[in-house]
TrEMBL record:
Organism (species): Glycomyces terrestris
PANTHER family given in the database record: ENDONUCLEASE/EXONUCLEASE/PHOSPHATASE FAMILY PROTEIN (AFU_ORTHOLOGUE AFUA_3G09210) (PTHR42834), ENDONUCLEASE_EXONUCLEASE_PHOSPHATASE FAMILY PROTEIN (AFU_ORTHOLOGUE AFUA_3G09210) (PTHR42834:SF1)
Keywords noted in UniProt: Signal
First and last residue of the signal peptide: 1-33
UniProt protein name: ExeM/NucH family extracellular endonuclease
Keyword Signal appears in the UniProt entry: yes
Lineage: superkingdom: Bacteria
C-alpha cells in the first residue's frame, strides 16, 4: 500500500497536518482544509440478503473517495464517463458493498480540479481522464435511474495519487457468477455496481443482440450453468413456466444466472460513437474472456466490456424445427409481425408519420394521442427496400409461401396503387406504386383498398421469385400512430368470401356478446373487417397512464381486431373449404396494461363465440401478437402482488381459454417440439407472445403448428451504427412468425 499513500502523505505534509479517517488515512489540502476520505463501499451501501432499497446511504452528500480509474465509457450521443474502483488492499472489506462507482462526465474528457487542492497546484484547472490514474475525487453522491454515481457537474479531482497503473492488477476483478435465483442475482449485481467484472470464456449467448439508441447489448450465461449443459437446442434459457426450464415448477428462480453485456466500454476503447457490440446470435459461444464495469440502466445490470466479444458460432437457430412446405391437399396460414413496416412516403392522412408532423390527437380518446409524432420511417428508401426484400425472402424460403399470411405492424396507409407498368421483372424500385401524397381524406386519388406497405411487400415477393399475393386490410384496425393488422393471400390458392348484411360478424349488426357499445365501424358490411367496442366503465375508472392499470385509450383495442373470411381452392381452382381468421395485436408489455389486455382477450373470445354460435363446425383460426404469455406462464407468479390485494397469476387470456371455444396451439407445439416452443426473446429468455388458437373442427385437420426461428434469436439491425445485417434475411423482425398447416378437402 506504499504507492497508494505516497502522494497522500506528500500532500498532507505540505499542508502540515495528517488526520486519520475512515479509510485508514486522511490528508488536508494546502489550504489547511481537512479531507476525510470515505470508502466507495460506504457510498454504495452494504446490501443485506433480502434488501430491496438500494439507495445510497450517503445520497445527496458531498464526499471524498479514492480509487483507480479502471475504464472509460462512451455512449452513442458522445457522453463520456469512467469507472473508479478502490485498490484491492484498500477496500472496506465488506463483501456486501461495492468497491467501485461510475462517474458521468457528459461530453468532456477532462474533470475539473478543486480550487486549493494538490491536483490544482500540480495539474492546473483540469485533469484529463486516464485509465490507470489513481485519484482522490470530491463529488455529490447522486443516482440516475438507480445507478449510484458521481456527475462531472459536481465532481472535482482533489489529488492525483498515482499514474500509469495496470487497473486489473490493482483492483479486484470478479469473474461473473450470479446465483440462479433472480432476486439473489439482483443483490449480487448490486454488490458489484461500478466494479470490474469478467465474463469468462465459454459463456453462451442466450438471445440475439438487441440495439437501442444507447447502444447494443447481448445476454449470456456461463458455459458451466445448468441451462448451458442441456442437449442441443434446449441449451438456452426459457421462462420459468416452460417445461425445459432448468428448475421444476412454473415459477421458480427467474433465471438469475443470466447476465447482459453492453458496449459503453468498447466504444471508449475504439474512440468512436459509431461502434456497437458484435452481432451475436443465440447459441454463439464467447471464446475469450471480456472485462468491464457494472453499470445499471433500464433496470438491467450490464458488464460494459472494454473489448469487443470474440464469438464462435453455435447451433443455427433457424434449424430448430423449421417449417415444412404443405403437401398435396394441404394449406398453410401464417402469422407474422413485420415490425414497423413503414414506407418512406409522407402519408397526407397522418399527422404522426414523419418527424416534423404536428402529431395525432383524438379528442374523444385522449389517452391515444401521439405527441410528439412516432417516427418509424426508414432513414432511406434503400433501407426500406432491404426490409421488404429480407421479409420476402423469409416468406418464400423459410415459410414456404403460405396460402394466407396474417400480418401485424404494417403501416396503416392507403394512398397508393400498383403502377400499371409493374411486372416482377420491371425493376421499378420506389416506382412500383403510384401515390397521391398531396390530398387527404376523400380527396385522395391514390388508394385502391390495399394497405400500401404490405401491398408493396406482395410485389417484392413476386420479384424475389415467389408467388403472386394480394394485400387486403381494413384501415380501421390501425392505432393512432399508424400501424395495423392486415392479410396477404395467394389468389391461386385462396379467395375472400362474400359476406351478407345479416352475417353475425361481417354484417351490419354483429352478434358479438360484449357488455359495452360497439364502435361505429362494427356496422360496416365488409370482409376483412375491424371490430371494436368501448372499454367497460369499471375498467375506464381504473385506467392510468402507466403500470398494471395503464390503458391505451378508452376502446377495447388501440389496434382493433380484424376478422376475415377466406375460402381455399383445390388444384383445379375450385372453392373447397372456408376458414375464419381473426388477426390481433394486443397492447404491449405483459406486466403492464393488465386490465386492458384482459378485455382484449375477452373481446377476441366474443368474436370467436359469435362465429361458433352461428356455425359450430366453423373452422376458426385466431392469431397474432398477443403480447402476453400462454398458460401456465404469467408475468405474475401465484401469490405475487400485482396491486394492493390483487395477486397473481393475472391470467390475462382467461377469456380465450374459457369462453372462446378455441384451443391454444401453443399446447400442441410444447408437446410436439418443446425446444422450439417460443416466438420471442427478452431479457435473455425465450418466451411466447405470438400465438395461434384453433376451433375444435380446425384442430382435427391440423398437420403441424410451428414457429420459424428466423428473427428473435438473430442480432437486431444496426444501420445507425453503419452495420449491414449480419445474417442476411434473418433478424429482420423482432418476432418469429408461426405457420399452421392443415388438410383441406
Amino acid at each position: 500500500m506504499q504507492s497508494l499513500r505516497r502522494r497522500a502523505r506528500l500532500a498532507a505534509a505540505a499542508a502540515g497536518a495528517v488526520i486519520i479517517g475512515a479509510s485508514g488515512f486522511l490528508f488536508a489540502s494546502q489550504a489547511q482544509a481537512q479531507v476525510d476520505i470515505v470508502h466507495i463501499g460506504a457510498v454504495q451501501g452494504s446490501i443485506e440478503d433480502g434488501d430491496t432499497n438500494f439507495a445510497s446511504p450517503l445520497a445527496g452528500q458531498t464526499v471524498f473517495v479514492q480509487g483507480v480509474v479502471t475504464q472509460k465509457t462512451l455512449d452513442p450521443a458522445g457522453n463520456q464517463g469512467f469507472f473508479l474502483q478502490e485498490r484491492a488492499d484498500a477496500t472496506d472489506g465488506d463483501p456486501n458493498s461495492s468497491d467501485g462507482i461510475f462517474v458521468f462526465n457528459n461530453q468532456y474528457s477532462t474533470l475539473r480540479t478543486l480550487t486549493g487542492s494538490p491536483a490544482r497546484e500540480e495539474l492546473g484547472a483540469n485533469w484529463t481522464v486516464a485509465v490507470g490514474d489513481e485519484i482522490v475525487l470530491r463529488g455529490v453522491v447522486g443516482s440516475y435511474f438507480g445507478n449510484i454515481q458521481f456527475s462531472g457537474g459536481s465532481a472535482y479531482v482533489y489529488d492525483l495519487v498515482d499514474t500509469g497503473l495496470d487497473p486489473l492488477a490493482e483492483v479486484e476483478a470478479v469473474e461473473i457468477d450470479p446465483p440462479d435465483d433472480a432476486r439473489s442475482s439482483t443483490e449480487y449485481m448490486r454488490r458489484h455496481l461500478g466494479m470490474q467484472m469478467t465474463v469468462p470464456a465459454d459463456s453462451v449467448v442466450t438471445a440475439g443482440r438487441d440495439v437501442y439508441s444507447s447502444g447494443g447489448e447481448v445476454w449470456a450465461m456461463r458455459g458451466d450453468s445448468a441451462a448451458a449443459q442441456q442437449d442441443g437446442y434446449a441449451a438456452r434459457a426459457y421462462r420459468d413456466a416452460h417445461p425445459l426450464d432448468t428448475v421444476e415448477g412454473a415459477f421458480d428462480d427467474g433465471n438469475g444466472y443470466l447476465f447482459v453485456i453492453g458496449d459503453l466500454g468498447i466504444r471508449a476503447t475504439e474512440g468512436t460513437t459509431e461502434t456497437i457490440i458484435a452481432p451475436a446470435k443465440t447459441y454463439d459461444v464467447i471464446t475469450e474472456a471480456a472485462t468491464g464495469g457494472i453499470y445499471l440502466s433500464f433496470a438491467k445490470y450490464a458488464v460494459e466490456v472494454s473489448e469487443d466479444l470474440v464469438l464462435e458460432g453455435g447451433l443455427e437457430p433457424a434449424g430448430n424445427e423449421p417449417v415444412e412446405a404443405p403437401g398435396r391437399g394441404e394449406a398453410a396460414v401464417a402469422s407474422y409481425n413485420i415490425e414497423n413496416l413503414y414506407d418512406t412516403r409522407d402519408n397526407p392522412n397522418s399527422g404522426c408519420d414523419f418527424a416534423g408532423n404536428a402529431g395525432c390527437t383524438d379528442p374523444e380518446d385522449p389517452e391515444g394521442n401521439v405527441r410528439p409524432p412516432f417516427d418509424y420511417v426508414p432513414a432511406t428508401y434503400e433501407e426500406y427496400e432491404a426490409q421488404l426484400q429480407r421479409q420476402a425472402a423469409q416468406i418464400v424460403e423459410d415459410l414456404h409461401s403460405p396460402a394466407i399470411l396474417m400480418t401485424q405492424e404494417g403501416e396503416a396507409q392507403d394512398v397508393c396503387s400498383v403502377n400499371p407498368a409493374w411486372t416482377k421483372d420491371a425493376d421499378l424500385g420506389p416506382d412500383r406504386l403510384v401515390c397521391d401524397l398531396a390530398n387527404a381524406g376523400d380527396a385522395n386519388t391514390g388508394g385502391d383498398g390495399a394497405p400500401d406497405s404490405i401491398q408493396e411487400l406482395a410485389l417484392v415477393i413476386a420479384e424475389y421469385g415467389g408467388p403472386t399475393y394480394q394485400a387486403v386490410g381494413d384501415l380501421d384496425s390501425a392505432d393512432t400512430r399508424g400501424i395495423m393488422t392486415g392479410f396477404l393471400y395467394q389468389p391461386k390458392l385462396a379467395g375472400l368470401s362474400n359476406v351478407k348484411s345479416w352475417d353475425p360478424v361481417f354484417g351490419d349488426s354483429p352478434e358479438i356478446d360484449y357488455p359495452t357499445e360497439p364502435d361505429a365501424i362494427n356496422a360496416d358490411v365488409q370482409n376483412p373487417k375491424a371490430l371494436n367496442a368501448a372499454l367497460p366503465q369499471e375498467v375506464i375508472d381504473q385506467c392510468t397512464s402507466s403500470g398494471v392499470y395503464a390503458c391505451n385509450g378508452y376502446d377495447v383495442f388501440s389496434r382493433a381486431a380484424q376478422a376475415a373470411k377466406f375460402y381455399f381452392k383445390d388444384r383445379h381452382g375450385r372453392p373447397v373449404e372456408e376458414i375464419y381468421l381473426i388477426n390481433n395485436h394486443f397492447s404491449s408489455s405483459p406486466n403492464t396494461r393488465v386490465l386492458h389486455r384482459t378485455e382484449q382477450a375477452n373481446y377476441l373470445a366474443a368474436i370467436s363465440s359469435a362465429i361458433l354460435d352461428h356455425q359450430w363446425k366453423a373452422k376458426v383460426l385466431a392469431g397474432g401478437d398477443l403480447n402476453v404469455f400462454p398458460r401456465p406462464d404469467d408475468p405474475f407468479a401465484e401469490g405475487q402482488v400485482i396491486s394492493g390485494d390483487w395477486t397473481g397469476p393475472s391470467d390475462q387470456l382467461a377469456g380465450l381459454y374459457e369462453d372462446s371455444g378455441l384451443c391454444a396451439l401453443y399446447d400442441v407445439m410444447v408437446e410436439d417440439h418443446p425446444a422450439a416452443a417460443y416466438s420471442y426473446t427478452y431479457m435473455g429468455q425465450a418466451q411466447t407472445l405470438d400465438q395461434m388458437w384453433a376451433s375444435p373442427r380446425l384442430l382435427r385437420e391440423i398437420e403441424s403448428a410451428v414457429t420459424a426461428h428466423i428473427n428473435s434469436d438473430y442480432p437486431a439491425d444496426a444501420y445507425d451504427f453503419g452495420e449491414e445485417p449480419a445474417y442476411g434475411r434473418y433478424g429482420v423482425s423482432d418476432h418469429d412468425p408461426s405457420v399452421v398447416v392443415f388438410d383441406i378437402k
